[in-house]
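Hey, I was hoping to borrow your eyes for a little while. I've been staring at a protein lately and its backbone has me curious. You're getting the sequence in one-letter code plus the fold written as C-alpha cells. Would you mind checking whether the C-alpha cells look sensible for this chain? Here's the protein in full, and shout if anything looks odd to you:
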Amino acid sequence: MSSITENQPSQLPLSPKIVKQMEKEIAKEEKADESRVKHILDELSSVEKSRAKAEKAVQKAEGVVNKAEKKELAAGKAANTAVHKQEIAVSDKNNAVKDAELKKQHELNLQREIDAKKEAADAAIKNQQIHQQARESKLAELRGESILGPPTTDASAPNF
C-alpha cells in the first residue's frame, strides 16, 4: 500500500487542503493498522483458547485411557483368577474320579475276598460236619452202636 508517510517529505509548503487530506490518509492507515493488529490479536486469543481446550481434552482422553487400562487389567486378573479356579476345579474333579475308582476297586477286592472267605468257611463247615459225622460214627462203632439205632446210655461210657 502506498502511503504518504512513506514518501519523502517535500520542501514545498503544503496547502491546508493537502495537509488535511494527508492527515486523513494517515488516520486511515493508523485505523487500518489498529484493525489488523486487533484482528491478529483476536485470532491469537481464539487459537490460545482452542489450544487450552484441546489440552484439557487431551488430559481427559488420557484419563479415559488410564481408566480403560485399569479396567482391562482388572478384567484380565479376573479372567486369570477364573481360569485358575476352573483349573483347580478340574484337577479336584479328576482327583475325585481317581479316588472313587480306587475305592471301587478296593471295594471289589474286598468283595472278592469276602466271597473267597465265604467259600472257604462253607467248605470248612462242610468238612467239619463230615468229620463230625465220621467221629460220631467211630464213637458209635466203639460203643457198639449202630448208626441207625438209638444210642444207648451207658454210665460207664466216657463223656467227651
Summary: The mean pLDDT is 88. The radius of gyration is 63 Å. DSSP finds one helix and no strands in the chain.
